[in-house]
Design a protein that fits this description.
Elements lengths: L7 H31 L7 H5 L1 H18 L10 H17 L6 H29 L5 H28 L13 H24 L5 H7 L4 H4 L9 H20 L5 H23 L6 H10 L3 H32 L8 H26 L1 H9 L1 H18 L9 H24 L7 H8 L1 H21 L6 H17 L5
Helix pairs in contact: 1-5, 1-6, 1-7, 1-13, 1-14, 3-5, 3-18, 3-19, 4-5, 4-7, 5-18, 6-7, 6-14, 6-17, 10-11, 11-12, 11-19, 13-14, 13-17, 13-19, 13-20, 14-17, 15-16, 16-17, 16-20
Length: 490
């Protein structure tokens, strides 16, 4: 039995909620470094404060994917309960964030905001697979990418637009400017409204209908954990301990401990899952998730390498673009200065440009190129365009010229959001599309954790007070991702 083909209205309704979610992500990505520095953070501490964002994604998305695969709440459905819960929590975090009275409160609210956005976002990835035929996956993810880009444009432009409306863009030391404050509040309302639209205008297929669309069974997909060798688990634990020891020996930043803890934690979780399976307890979340990690389709493993290097570059950009633009293009590294805040607003414009380019490229440029040279080569070409955009930051000092840089970054962003998912979606088992989309996110957040934990140490050791070199790191990682893309036959 084949799923019905979705028309334009159906494609719109399925992904419109992502428009609101991306407004939330855009406000977070373009303004949190500004919020942290306005509340007294030094530039060297930004990576550590940002660590909450990828960590919550790493923990939340596989769990939400697993749970949403097994949820059915009648008329509310399978994925939509998570859309709604995440939207309520994210809107609350956006409401409270500008009222933070210190760095700790802001960091905790960032944790809450990112976790909430991930609760909503992960099921949206699986939702496309649930609702669309395989021959509509490419257009489905392209429409989703267009909404991501459009939402990010809107979210990124809020402070800039409010500044031009006469709202105060400078605040006393230790306070957040009104432009940022009001942007978060309006963005929270827009996020909730967009997600509610998808919840109210879509109706999910019942478990019986989904079974009719597929001949897969849970028994066929169940991992055989009991037969796995536990020695690799001990290797992961040992690697985590070794990193902790190196932090002490080399005097690295303390946040690098988190990286060691994550490696050791994965080893312990894998060992626990194996022991549970050998005791006959295989029907539990831990066993399923760990088993699914081992059972990833081959193309997913290759795409994971590409995602790792691609998202390293993106996270560098989100953390460091504001201090780079403010210091090198606007001439001030002081968050209390008008020049710094003007630079922060310009970063919102730059981010809106790359997201706007992505929205257009996803529906026009990428399909046209992919039909001629294939999806993998298209992805490699787009990543090289992004590398050129990041590299240009090292030479440009006129902020207006950075708009051209953002065109290249926007093309890369469009491809990162669409091409890997288009290549992956058709190879995933329908009964586990939620958990696999969540696991795929591991290769999005692990590089972000590496940046958050290690970049501060690298910059302090080799480029103190000179954040422009972070853009060189971003350019190199995108070039590596482009080379890895050429290994895929698609």
């Amino acid at each position: 039995m084949e799923k019905p083909r979705q028309g334009f209205a159906g494609l719109w309704n399925i992904s419109f909620g992502f428009f609101g979610i991306q407004i939330g992500f855009a406000l977070q990505n373009a303004n949190m470094s500004r919020v942290f520095q306005s509340l007294g953070s030094s530039i060297d501490d930004l990576s550590a404060l940002w660590v909450a964002a990828p960590l919550t994604g790493l923990l939340v998305q596989p769990v939400i994917g697993h749970l949403s695969d097994r949820t059915w709440l009648g008329r509310l459905g399978r994925r939509r309960p998570y859309f709604l819960l995440g939207a309520i929590l994210a809107a609350t975090a956006l409401l409270l964030m500008p009222r933070s009275d210190g760095l700790l409160a802001a960091a905790l609210l960032l944790w809450m905001l990112d976790a909430s956005l991930n609760i909503s976002m992960e099921p949206f990835r699986a939702f496309v697979g649930d609702m669309l035929r395989k021959d509509q996956h490419v257009v489905g993810y392209a429409v989703q990418t267009a909404f991501i880009g459009t939402g990010a444009v809107v979210g990124s432009l809020f402070p800039y637009a409010l500044d031009h409306m006469g709202i105060a863009n400078v605040a006393p030391a230790g306070e957040v400017p009104d432009t940022v404050r009001y942007s978060f509040w309006v963005g929270g309302a827009a996020l909730f409204g967009a997600v509610l639209w998808t919840v109210l205008t879509t109706r999910e297929y019942t478990p019986q209908q989904m079974q009719a669309f597929s001949d897969e069974t849970e028994a066929h997909l169940a991992p055989d954990l009991a037969a796995r060798n536990p020695l690799p688990c001990l290797a992961w634990i040992g690697a985590g301990a070794a990193i902790a020891l190196l932090v002490e020996i080399w005097g690295m930043e303390k946040e690098v401990y988190l990286l060691g803890a994550l490696l050791a934690g994965y080893g312990l979780a894998s060992l626990a899952a194996i022991l549970l399976a050998r005791a006959g307890r295989v029907d539990n979340m831990l066993a399923h998730i760990i088993g699914d990690v081992a059972g990833m389709p081959p193309i997913m493993r290759k795409l994971a390498v590409i995602q790792f290097f691609s998202w390293s570059a993106l996270f560098i950009m989100w953390i460091h673009t504001t201090p780079v633009v403010a210091q090198y293009m606007f001439g001030s590294a002081d968050p209390a200065s008008a020049a710094y805040q003007a630079g922060g607003n310009w970063v919102g414009v730059l981010f809106s440009v790359y997201n706007g380019v992505a929205a257009v490229a996803a529906l026009t440029l990428l399909p046209w190129i992919a039909r001629r040279i294939g999806q993998a080569r298209t992805h490699a070409l787009c990543l090289l365009a992004g590398a050129a955009g990041f590299g240009s930051f090292l030479f440009l000092r006129d902020p207006d010229w950075l708009l051209l840089s953002e065109v290249g970054i926007g093309i890369a962003w469009a491809s990162i959001l669409a091409m890997p998912y288009a290549m992956l979606a058709s190879s995933l088992p329908a009964a586990k599309i939620g958990v696999y989309m969540g696991l795929f996110n591991i290769f999005v957040v692990v590089p972000q954790l590496l940046v958050a934990t290690a970049m501060g140490s690298i910059m302090k050791a080799f480029f103190p007070g000179d954040p422009i070199w972070t853009m060189a790191f971003a350019a190199v990682t995108l070039m590596v991702a482009a080379l890895a893309s050429l290994r895929i036959k698609a």
